[in-house]
């Protein structure tokens, strides 16, 4: 899947640079439509990123416009308590809690948009396996092909925060 | 774990709610609930001191070592 993503991006770059010499001229209608579509898609994604309803869209393996980093962590603490605990940890971290669904046990937290990053969506889901609660983290960055290790670092930092918070 | 947390017993003896203890000690109810279940990684002396002060008890009343 990753190689398909790389091939698609390479194809897109070649296509844009190839067509660019013919069409990318000021006031060219094709260029105007192209720019409008890019800006529209960008704004559309920015609007819907703050909703848990679009989790599948952003975390889907077929979405080539997001970088996804998955990680898992389990604790022998009940799911309900762990859910509250994670919300508490997020509120004291660099992430901002956007939405939490207590029925589905899902959390969405985002990092703010900076000059370095478009912002990151962190989806957390909870599962119970025996006495253990398994937390699944998915960090998705919009309009980025590679995470350059930033998503992994943010995820690791949050996991360390959770670990630290269990010392009361 | 060989360490048993008897916080719920002490709370019942003092007829105190977890929320009330949380307000007195300055530790969130989530953290106290995790402590009550003995699932915390560690407890600070300062937290133990505050709990003992609020419940008017000794650390041994809250923590117990069993074989």
Secondary-structure blueprint:
The complex is a heterodimer of chains A (168) and B (67).
Chain A: H1 2-23, H2 29-48, H3 55-59, E1 66-75, H4 79-91, E2 96-101, E3 106-110, E4 120-129, E5 132-142, H5 150-165
Antiparallel strand pairs in A: 1-5, 2-3, 3-4, 4-5
Helix pairs in contact in A: 4-5
Chain B: E1 3-5, H1 7-13, H2 18-25, H3 29-36, H4 45-55, H5 59-62, E2 63-65
Antiparallel strand pairs in B: 1-2
Task: Summarize the structure in words.
The complex is a heterodimer of chains A (168) and B (67). Chain A is an alpha+beta fold and 168 residues long. Chain A has helices spanning 2-23, 29-48, 55-59, 79-91, 150-165, and strands at 66-75, 96-101, 106-110, 120-129, 132-142. Chain A has a 5-stranded antiparallel β-sheet. In chain A, a hairpin with a 4-residue loop joins β2 (96-101) and β3. In chain A, α4 packs across α5. The termini of chain A are far apart. By secondary structure, chain B is mostly helical. Chain B is 57% helix and 9% strand. Chain B has 5 helices and 2 strands; from the N terminus they run βαααααβ. The longest helix of chain B has 11 residues, at 45-55. Chain B is globular and about 35 Å long. The relative contact order of chain B is 0.26. The model of chain B has no long low-confidence stretch (mean pLDDT 91). The chains are: A alpha+beta (168), B mainly alpha (67).
């Amino acid at each position: 899947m990753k190689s398909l993503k790389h091939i698609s991006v390479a194809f897109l770059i070649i296509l844009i640079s190839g067509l660019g010499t013919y069409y990318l001229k000021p006031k060219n209608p094709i260029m105007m439509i192209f720019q409008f579509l890019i800006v529209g898609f960008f704004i559309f994604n920015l609007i819907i990123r703050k909703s848990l309803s679009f989790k599948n869209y952003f975390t889907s393996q077929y979405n080539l416009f997001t970088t996804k980093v998955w990680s898992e962590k389990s604790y022998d603490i009940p799911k309900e308590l762990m859910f509250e605990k994670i919300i508490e940890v997020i509120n004291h971290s660099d992430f901002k809690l956007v939405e939490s669904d207590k029925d589905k046990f899902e959390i969405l937290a985002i990092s703010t948009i900076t000059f370095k990053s478009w912002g990151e969506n962190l989806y957390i889901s909870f599962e119970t396996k025996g006495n253990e609660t398994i937390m699944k983290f998915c960090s998705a960055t919009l309009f980025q092909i590679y995470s350059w290790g930033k998503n992994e670092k943010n995820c690791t930092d949050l996991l360390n925060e959770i670990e630290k918070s269990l010392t009361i | 774990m060989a360490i048993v947390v008897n916080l719920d017993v002490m709370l019942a003896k003092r007829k105190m709610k977890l929320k009330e203890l949380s307000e007195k000690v300055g530790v969130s109810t989530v953290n106290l609930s995790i402590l009550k279940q003995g699932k915390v990684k560690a407890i600070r002396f300062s937290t133990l001191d505050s709990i003992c002060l609020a419940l008017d008890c000794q650390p041994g009343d809250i923590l117990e070592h069993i074989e």
